[in-house]
UniProtKB/TrEMBL annotation:
GO terms for cellular component: Set1C/COMPASS complex. Belongs to the WD repeat SWD2 family. It comes from Lasiosphaeria miniovina. WD repeats lie at residues 146-187. This is WD40-repeat-containing domain protein. The keyword rRNA-binding does not apply. The keyword Nucleus applies. One of its GO terms (molecular function) is chromatin binding. It comes from the Eukaryota. Keywords: Nucleus, Repeat, WD repeat.
Protein backbone atom coordinates (compact mmCIF):
# COMPACT_ATOMS: atom_id res chain seq x y z
CA UNK A 1 0.00 0.00 0.00
CA UNK A 2 1.64 3.21 -1.13
CA UNK A 3 0.93 6.46 0.66
CA UNK A 4 1.80 9.86 -0.72
CA UNK A 5 2.68 12.63 1.76
CA UNK A 6 1.19 15.94 0.69
CA UNK A 7 2.01 19.57 1.44
CA UNK A 8 1.22 19.61 5.14
CA UNK A 9 2.48 16.10 5.81
CA UNK A 10 6.23 16.71 5.71
CA UNK A 11 8.20 15.21 8.57
CA UNK A 12 10.05 17.61 10.83
CA UNK A 13 13.85 17.50 10.49
CA UNK A 14 14.25 15.40 13.63
CA UNK A 15 12.15 12.63 12.07
CA UNK A 16 13.39 12.83 8.51
CA UNK A 17 16.59 11.00 9.35
CA UNK A 18 14.80 8.20 11.20
CA UNK A 19 13.30 5.13 9.61
CA UNK A 20 9.84 5.87 10.97
CA UNK A 21 6.51 7.03 9.63
CA UNK A 22 5.85 10.59 10.84
CA UNK A 23 2.68 11.17 12.81
CA UNK A 24 -0.01 13.32 11.27
CA UNK A 25 -0.20 15.21 14.58
CA UNK A 26 -3.98 15.04 14.57
CA UNK A 27 -5.64 17.03 17.35
CA UNK A 28 -8.17 15.16 19.43
CA UNK A 29 -11.53 16.84 19.75
CA UNK A 30 -15.02 15.97 21.00
CA UNK A 31 -13.97 12.61 22.42
CA UNK A 32 -15.80 10.88 25.23
CA UNK A 33 -14.52 12.20 28.59
CA UNK A 34 -11.77 14.06 26.76
CA UNK A 35 -11.75 17.87 26.74
CA UNK A 36 -12.02 19.43 23.33
CA UNK A 37 -8.72 21.09 22.44
CA UNK A 38 -9.77 22.69 19.16
CA UNK A 39 -13.24 23.75 18.09
CA UNK A 40 -14.32 22.56 14.67
CA UNK A 41 -15.24 26.15 13.79
CA UNK A 42 -11.63 27.19 14.39
CA UNK A 43 -10.22 24.75 11.85
CA UNK A 44 -12.94 23.90 9.36
CA UNK A 45 -11.64 26.28 6.71
CA UNK A 46 -8.05 25.06 7.17
CA UNK A 47 -8.55 21.42 6.18
CA UNK A 48 -6.12 20.32 3.51
CA UNK A 49 -5.51 17.01 1.68
CA UNK A 50 -2.65 15.55 3.68
CA UNK A 51 -2.01 11.93 2.77
CA UNK A 52 -3.11 9.95 -0.27
CA UNK A 53 -3.23 6.15 -0.18
CA UNK A 54 -2.79 4.33 -3.48
CA UNK A 55 -3.31 0.58 -3.72
CA UNK A 56 -0.02 -0.84 -4.98
CA UNK A 57 -1.16 -4.46 -4.62
CA UNK A 58 -3.47 -4.22 -7.65
CA UNK A 59 -2.25 -6.35 -10.53
CA UNK A 60 -0.63 -4.55 -13.43
CA UNK A 61 -3.19 -3.62 -16.07
CA UNK A 62 -6.07 -3.74 -13.58
CA UNK A 63 -7.83 -0.48 -12.63
CA UNK A 64 -7.73 0.81 -9.08
CA UNK A 65 -10.80 -0.50 -7.20
CA UNK A 66 -13.54 1.89 -6.12
CA UNK A 67 -13.87 2.59 -2.43
CA UNK A 68 -17.44 1.74 -1.43
CA UNK A 69 -17.53 2.93 2.19
CA UNK A 70 -15.46 4.61 4.90
CA UNK A 71 -15.85 4.10 8.65
CA UNK A 72 -13.94 5.04 11.81
CA UNK A 73 -13.81 3.02 15.01
CA UNK A 74 -15.14 4.50 18.26
CA UNK A 75 -11.76 5.77 19.57
CA UNK A 76 -11.05 7.30 16.16
CA UNK A 77 -7.74 5.46 15.90
CA UNK A 78 -8.65 3.29 12.88
CA UNK A 79 -10.15 4.02 9.49
CA UNK A 80 -11.67 1.24 7.39
CA UNK A 81 -12.72 1.05 3.76
CA UNK A 82 -14.65 -1.59 1.85
CA UNK A 83 -13.61 -1.79 -1.78
CA UNK A 84 -14.92 -3.07 -5.09
CA UNK A 85 -12.14 -5.68 -5.41
CA UNK A 86 -13.74 -7.50 -2.45
CA UNK A 87 -11.21 -6.34 0.13
CA UNK A 88 -11.35 -4.47 3.41
CA UNK A 89 -8.51 -2.04 4.12
CA UNK A 90 -7.67 -0.78 7.62
CA UNK A 91 -5.52 2.29 8.34
CA UNK A 92 -3.88 3.78 11.43
CA UNK A 93 -5.21 7.32 11.67
CA UNK A 94 -2.61 9.06 13.84
CA UNK A 95 0.38 7.65 11.99
CA UNK A 96 -1.23 7.93 8.56
CA UNK A 97 -0.34 4.32 7.85
CA UNK A 98 -1.97 1.35 6.13
CA UNK A 99 -2.27 -1.45 8.70
CA UNK A 100 -3.85 -4.46 7.07
CA UNK A 101 -5.80 -5.83 4.14
CA UNK A 102 -8.58 -8.41 4.60
CA UNK A 103 -10.08 -10.50 1.81
CA UNK A 104 -13.74 -11.38 1.27
CA UNK A 105 -13.44 -12.91 -2.19
CA UNK A 106 -16.12 -15.57 -1.66
CA UNK A 107 -18.89 -13.24 -0.47
CA UNK A 108 -17.79 -9.78 -1.59
CA UNK A 109 -18.02 -6.79 0.74
CA UNK A 110 -19.71 -3.41 1.08
CA UNK A 111 -20.99 -1.14 3.87
CA UNK A 112 -18.27 -2.27 6.31
CA UNK A 113 -18.85 -0.91 9.83
CA UNK A 114 -16.87 -1.21 13.04
CA UNK A 115 -18.82 -2.54 15.99
CA UNK A 116 -18.16 -0.84 19.32
CA UNK A 117 -15.14 -3.15 19.59
CA UNK A 118 -12.41 -2.02 17.23
CA UNK A 119 -11.32 -5.58 16.46
CA UNK A 120 -14.66 -6.68 15.01
CA UNK A 121 -16.76 -5.44 12.09
CA UNK A 122 -19.98 -6.14 10.24
CA UNK A 123 -20.49 -5.85 6.50
CA UNK A 124 -22.94 -6.71 3.74
CA UNK A 125 -22.33 -9.31 1.05
CA UNK A 126 -22.27 -8.62 -2.68
CA UNK A 127 -22.45 -12.22 -3.95
CA UNK A 128 -23.32 -15.81 -2.95
CA UNK A 129 -26.19 -14.62 -0.74
CA UNK A 130 -27.46 -11.53 1.05
CA UNK A 131 -26.24 -12.35 4.55
CA UNK A 132 -24.57 -9.80 6.80
CA UNK A 133 -21.23 -11.01 8.12
CA UNK A 134 -19.61 -10.45 11.51
CA UNK A 135 -15.82 -10.64 11.29
CA UNK A 136 -12.92 -10.58 13.76
CA UNK A 137 -10.25 -8.45 12.09
CA UNK A 138 -7.27 -9.73 14.10
CA UNK A 139 -7.39 -13.15 12.39
CA UNK A 140 -9.93 -12.56 9.58
CA UNK A 141 -12.30 -15.18 11.02
CA UNK A 142 -16.09 -15.07 10.89
CA UNK A 143 -17.85 -14.87 14.23
CA UNK A 144 -21.41 -15.09 12.91
CA UNK A 145 -23.61 -14.75 9.83
CA UNK A 146 -26.85 -12.80 10.02
CA UNK A 147 -29.24 -14.54 7.63
CA UNK A 148 -32.68 -13.36 6.58
CA UNK A 149 -32.52 -10.78 3.80
CA UNK A 150 -33.62 -12.04 0.40
CA UNK A 151 -32.15 -9.23 -1.70
CA UNK A 152 -29.19 -6.87 -1.59
CA UNK A 153 -28.60 -5.01 1.67
CA UNK A 154 -28.50 -1.24 1.11
CA UNK A 155 -27.77 0.12 4.59
CA UNK A 156 -26.28 -0.89 7.95
CA UNK A 157 -26.75 1.40 10.95
CA UNK A 158 -25.17 0.53 14.30
CA UNK A 159 -26.94 1.64 17.48
CA UNK A 160 -24.89 4.43 19.14
CA UNK A 161 -24.93 2.79 22.57
CA UNK A 162 -24.95 -0.95 21.91
CA UNK A 163 -24.09 -3.52 19.28
CA UNK A 164 -27.65 -3.76 18.07
CA UNK A 165 -27.99 -2.67 14.46
CA UNK A 166 -30.51 -2.05 11.70
CA UNK A 167 -30.30 -3.20 8.10
CA UNK A 168 -32.28 -2.15 5.02
CA UNK A 169 -32.67 -4.25 1.90
CA UNK A 170 -34.15 -4.34 -1.57
CA UNK A 171 -36.41 -7.12 -0.26
CA UNK A 172 -38.54 -4.27 1.18
CA UNK A 173 -37.68 -5.03 4.78
CA UNK A 174 -35.93 -3.25 7.60
CA UNK A 175 -34.54 -5.75 10.11
CA UNK A 176 -33.26 -5.23 13.62
CA UNK A 177 -30.50 -7.42 14.97
CA UNK A 178 -28.73 -8.18 18.23
CA UNK A 179 -25.12 -8.88 17.44
CA UNK A 180 -25.12 -11.84 19.82
CA UNK A 181 -27.69 -13.79 17.76
CA UNK A 182 -27.83 -14.71 14.07
CA UNK A 183 -31.64 -14.37 13.98
CA UNK A 184 -33.19 -10.97 13.43
CA UNK A 185 -35.09 -9.50 16.38
CA UNK A 186 -37.73 -7.62 14.39
CA UNK A 187 -38.77 -7.06 10.79
CA UNK A 188 -40.61 -4.09 9.27
CA UNK A 189 -42.21 -4.41 5.84
CA UNK A 190 -41.85 -1.09 4.03
CA UNK A 191 -41.92 0.10 0.40
CA UNK A 192 -38.32 0.49 -0.73
CA UNK A 193 -36.50 1.23 2.55
CA UNK A 194 -33.06 2.21 1.32
CA UNK A 195 -31.29 3.92 4.25
CA UNK A 196 -31.60 3.91 8.04
CA UNK A 197 -30.04 6.16 10.69
CA UNK A 198 -30.12 6.46 14.49
CA UNK A 199 -30.57 9.69 16.36
CA UNK A 200 -27.71 10.39 18.85
CA UNK A 201 -29.74 9.18 21.84
CA UNK A 202 -30.41 5.79 20.27
CA UNK A 203 -34.11 6.14 21.11
CA UNK A 204 -35.23 7.03 17.58
CA UNK A 205 -34.36 5.66 14.18
CA UNK A 206 -35.27 7.00 10.76
CA UNK A 207 -35.78 5.18 7.48
CA UNK A 208 -35.58 6.85 4.07
CA UNK A 209 -38.16 5.65 1.51
CA UNK A 210 -37.33 7.37 -1.78
CA UNK A 211 -40.07 5.56 -3.70
CA UNK A 212 -42.68 7.34 -1.56
CA UNK A 213 -40.64 10.52 -1.15
CA UNK A 214 -40.65 10.26 2.62
CA UNK A 215 -38.53 9.75 5.72
CA UNK A 216 -40.26 7.98 8.60
CA UNK A 217 -39.28 8.01 12.27
CA UNK A 218 -39.81 5.25 14.83
CA UNK A 219 -39.54 5.12 18.60
CA UNK A 220 -37.02 2.29 19.11
CA UNK A 221 -38.81 1.19 22.29
CA UNK A 222 -42.14 0.93 20.43
CA UNK A 223 -41.13 0.03 16.89
CA UNK A 224 -44.05 -2.43 16.70
CA UNK A 225 -46.33 0.58 16.42
CA UNK A 226 -46.64 2.85 13.41
CA UNK A 227 -43.94 5.48 12.90
CA UNK A 228 -44.55 8.51 15.10
CA UNK A 229 -43.55 10.94 12.33
CA UNK A 230 -43.59 10.99 8.53
CA UNK A 231 -41.55 13.67 6.77
CA UNK A 232 -42.87 14.32 3.27
CA UNK A 233 -39.83 15.30 1.20
CA UNK A 234 -42.04 15.89 -1.85
CA UNK A 235 -43.90 18.54 0.13
CA UNK A 236 -40.88 20.32 1.61
CA UNK A 237 -38.39 19.94 -1.25
CA UNK A 238 -38.04 23.70 -1.66
CA UNK A 239 -35.96 24.68 -4.71
CA UNK A 240 -34.81 21.12 -5.42
CA UNK A 241 -35.81 19.46 -8.66
CA UNK A 242 -38.91 17.28 -8.31
CA UNK A 243 -36.91 14.17 -9.18
CA UNK A 244 -34.60 14.71 -6.19
CA UNK A 245 -37.57 14.34 -3.84
CA UNK A 246 -38.15 10.69 -4.70
CA UNK A 247 -34.93 9.22 -6.06
CA UNK A 248 -31.17 9.54 -5.98
CA UNK A 249 -30.81 9.53 -2.17
CA UNK A 250 -27.30 8.80 -0.95
CA UNK A 251 -27.18 9.42 2.81
CA UNK A 252 -29.29 9.85 5.93
CA UNK A 253 -27.74 11.19 9.14
CA UNK A 254 -28.82 12.93 12.35
CA UNK A 255 -26.64 15.73 13.67
CA UNK A 256 -25.01 14.94 17.00
CA UNK A 257 -27.05 17.64 18.72
CA UNK A 258 -30.21 15.89 17.50
CA UNK A 259 -31.63 19.04 15.88
CA UNK A 260 -31.15 18.27 12.19
CA UNK A 261 -31.52 15.42 9.76
CA UNK A 262 -29.37 15.37 6.63
CA UNK A 263 -30.78 13.69 3.53
CA UNK A 264 -28.12 13.41 0.84
CA UNK A 265 -28.88 13.30 -2.87
CA UNK A 266 -26.76 12.76 -5.97
CA UNK A 267 -29.05 15.01 -8.02
CA UNK A 268 -27.56 18.42 -7.41
CA UNK A 269 -28.04 19.11 -3.72
CA UNK A 270 -28.80 17.86 -0.21
CA UNK A 271 -31.75 18.45 2.14
CA UNK A 272 -31.26 19.76 5.67
CA UNK A 273 -34.44 18.93 7.59
CA UNK A 274 -35.62 19.85 11.05
CA UNK A 275 -35.34 16.59 13.00
CA UNK A 276 -38.51 17.35 15.00
CA UNK A 277 -41.06 18.42 12.42
CA UNK A 278 -39.42 17.58 9.07
CA UNK A 279 -39.53 21.10 7.67
CA UNK A 280 -36.84 22.14 5.24
CA UNK A 281 -34.21 24.21 7.04
CA UNK A 282 -32.07 24.61 3.93
CA UNK A 283 -31.33 23.17 0.51
CA UNK A 284 -27.60 22.65 0.06
CA UNK A 285 -27.13 23.18 -3.62
CA UNK A 286 -23.94 21.94 -5.23
CA UNK A 287 -22.58 22.18 -8.78
CA UNK A 288 -23.81 19.18 -10.77
CA UNK A 289 -24.61 15.68 -9.64
CA UNK A 290 -22.33 12.72 -8.94
CA UNK A 291 -21.33 9.78 -11.09
CA UNK A 292 -22.20 7.07 -8.60
CA UNK A 293 -25.58 5.43 -8.28
CA UNK A 294 -27.63 6.30 -5.25
CA UNK A 295 -28.27 3.77 -2.51
CA UNK A 296 -30.43 0.95 -3.83
CA UNK A 297 -30.19 1.95 -7.50
CA UNK A 298 -29.19 -0.96 -9.71
CA UNK A 299 -29.46 0.31 -13.27
CA UNK A 300 -26.42 1.24 -15.29
CA UNK A 301 -23.91 -1.03 -13.59
CA UNK A 302 -22.13 1.90 -11.93
CA UNK A 303 -20.69 1.93 -8.42
CA UNK A 304 -23.20 2.54 -5.64
CA UNK A 305 -22.86 5.42 -3.19
CA UNK A 306 -22.63 4.88 0.55
CA UNK A 307 -22.61 8.50 1.69
CA UNK A 308 -21.19 11.51 -0.13
CA UNK A 309 -22.06 13.96 2.67
CA UNK A 310 -21.90 14.06 6.47
CA UNK A 311 -22.10 16.29 9.54
CA UNK A 312 -19.09 17.49 11.48
CA UNK A 313 -19.05 16.06 15.03
CA UNK A 314 -20.37 19.30 16.54
CA UNK A 315 -23.41 19.19 14.25
CA UNK A 316 -22.75 22.66 12.90
CA UNK A 317 -21.17 21.91 9.53
CA UNK A 318 -22.08 19.69 6.60
CA UNK A 319 -19.39 18.44 4.26
CA UNK A 320 -20.08 17.10 0.80
CA UNK A 321 -18.08 15.67 -2.02
CA UNK A 322 -18.36 16.93 -5.56
CA UNK A 323 -16.72 16.25 -8.91
CA UNK A 324 -13.86 18.30 -7.51
CA UNK A 325 -13.28 20.08 -4.20
CA UNK A 326 -14.90 19.44 -0.84
CA UNK A 327 -17.89 21.65 -0.03
CA UNK A 328 -18.71 22.92 3.47
CA UNK A 329 -21.98 24.50 4.65
CA UNK A 330 -22.52 26.23 7.99
CA UNK A 331 -25.95 25.34 9.42
CA UNK A 332 -25.91 28.49 11.56
CA UNK A 333 -25.84 30.67 8.44
CA UNK A 334 -29.09 32.05 7.05
CA UNK A 335 -30.36 30.62 3.75
CA UNK A 336 -31.78 32.93 1.09
CA UNK A 337 -35.50 33.48 0.50
CA UNK A 338 -35.63 30.25 -1.56
CA UNK A 339 -34.10 28.25 1.31
CA UNK A 340 -30.83 27.81 -0.61
CA UNK A 341 -27.83 27.84 1.72
CA UNK A 342 -24.58 28.95 0.11
CA UNK A 343 -21.34 27.12 0.88
CA UNK A 344 -19.29 28.61 3.69
CA UNK A 345 -16.03 27.10 2.46
CA UNK A 346 -14.75 25.29 -0.61
CA UNK A 347 -11.74 23.11 0.22
CA UNK A 348 -9.61 22.74 -2.86
CA UNK A 349 -8.86 19.33 -4.34
CA UNK A 350 -8.76 18.10 -7.91
CA UNK A 351 -10.07 14.62 -7.08
CA UNK A 352 -13.72 13.61 -6.85
CA UNK A 353 -14.91 12.93 -3.30
CA UNK A 354 -17.51 10.20 -3.82
CA UNK A 355 -17.45 9.01 -0.18
CA UNK A 356 -16.97 11.37 2.78
CA UNK A 357 -16.55 10.64 6.50
CA UNK A 358 -15.55 12.84 9.46
CA UNK A 359 -13.68 11.20 12.33
CA UNK A 360 -15.88 11.67 15.42
CA UNK A 361 -12.88 11.76 17.80
CA UNK A 362 -10.28 13.79 15.93
CA UNK A 363 -10.24 16.83 13.74
CA UNK A 364 -9.58 14.82 10.61
CA UNK A 365 -11.70 13.49 7.80
CA UNK A 366 -11.40 11.07 4.92
CA UNK A 367 -12.66 11.19 1.35
CA UNK A 368 -12.38 8.66 -1.43
CA UNK A 369 -13.25 7.57 -4.91
CA UNK A 370 -10.58 5.15 -6.10
CA UNK A 371 -7.97 6.35 -3.61
CA UNK A 372 -8.30 7.19 0.06
CA UNK A 373 -7.39 10.71 1.13
CA UNK A 374 -6.83 11.92 4.70
CA UNK A 375 -7.50 15.61 5.46
CA UNK A 376 -6.29 17.52 8.53
CA UNK A 377 -6.21 21.25 9.34
CA UNK A 378 -3.12 23.06 8.10
CA UNK A 379 -1.64 24.78 11.19
CA UNK A 380 -0.23 27.51 8.94
CA UNK A 381 -3.52 28.33 7.22
Amino acid sequence: MASTPMDVDEAPPSLTSLNTTPSLNITRTLGVNVPSTTKVSDVISAFRPTKLFHRDDVKEGKPQPHILSIDFDDPGELCMTSESDETIQIYNVKDGRHDKSLMSKKYGVKLAKFTHTSSSIIYASTKQNDAIRYLATHDNSFIRYFDGHEASVTSLALHPGSDNFISCSLDNTVRMWNIGSRQWVAKLLLPGPHIAAWDPSGNVFAVALPASGSVILYDYRNYQKAPFAVFDVMKVKGPAELEAAYRGWTALEFSNDGKHLLLGSRLGGHFLLDAFDGTLKAYLKKPGGTRRLAVGEIEGGSVESSGDCCFSPDGRYILSGAKKDLLVWDTLATPDHNKILETAHVLDDKREAAVVAYNPRYNMLATADQELLFWIPDPHA
